[in-house]
């Protein structure tokens, strides 16, 4: 499946908008980071930005955040999932992705 130039532009715009939102809310201004995976995901609710990372402090935790644009609003909906279950992380990530994929907007 080929990605069109318009889809690439839309994805880059989505990442730039989320990056600005993160910079504003957290002061970090960075989507990347050690061990952080960022990608654009196509969901039924629209083109989203998906960030996944693991922390290894006192308790190992996996966090998935999905930023979905709100139609006709200009804002973003944040779906945030976290599980302090290191060995179960792959299964939990699949569950989190499945939940995010159920989001749909009413017309």
End-to-end C-alpha gap: 28 Å
Structural class call reads: alpha+beta
Spatial ordering of strands, largest sheet: 1-2-3-4
- List the quaternary state of the chains: single chain
Give the beta-strand count.
4
User: Helical stretch count?
Assistant: 2
- Average pLDDT confidence is 78
What is the global morphology? globular
Global Rg: 15 Å
Kindly state the percentage of residues in helix: 25-40%
Strand content: 25-35%
Query: What's the order of the H and E elements?
Result: HEEEEH
Biggest sheet overview: 4 strands, antiparallel
Uncertain runs: 24-29
Overall domain count: 1
Summarize this structure briefly.
The chain contains two helices and four strands, in the order αββββα. Helices cover 32% and strands 34% of the residues.
Describe the structure.
This protein is an alpha+beta fold. It has one domain (5-100). The chain has 2 helices and 4 strands; from the N terminus they run H-E-E-E-E-H. It has helices at residues 5-26, 89-100, and strands at 37-43, 46-56, 60-69, 76-83. The longest helix has 22 residues, at 5-26. Residues 24-29 have low confidence and may be disordered.
Element layout with pairings:
Blueprint: H1 5-26, E1 37-43, E2 46-56, E3 60-69, E4 76-83, H2 89-100
Antiparallel strand pairs: 1-2, 2-3, 3-4
Key features of this structure:
globular; 34% strand; four-stranded antiparallel sheet; 107 residues; single chain; 2 helices
């Amino acid at each position: 499946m080929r990605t069109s130039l318009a889809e690439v532009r839309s994805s880059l715009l989505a990442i730039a908008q989320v990056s600005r939102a993160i910079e504003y809310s957290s002061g970090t201004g960075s989507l990347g980071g050690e061990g952080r995976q960022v990608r654009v995901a196509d969901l039924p609710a629209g083109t989203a930005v998906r960030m996944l990372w693991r922390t290894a402090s006192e308790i190992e935790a996996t966090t998935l955040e999905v930023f979905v644009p709100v139609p006709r609003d200009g804002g973003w909906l944040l779906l945030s999932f976290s599980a302090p279950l290191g060995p179960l992380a792959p299964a939990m990530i699949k569950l989190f992705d499945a939940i995010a994929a159920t989001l749909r907007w009413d017309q």
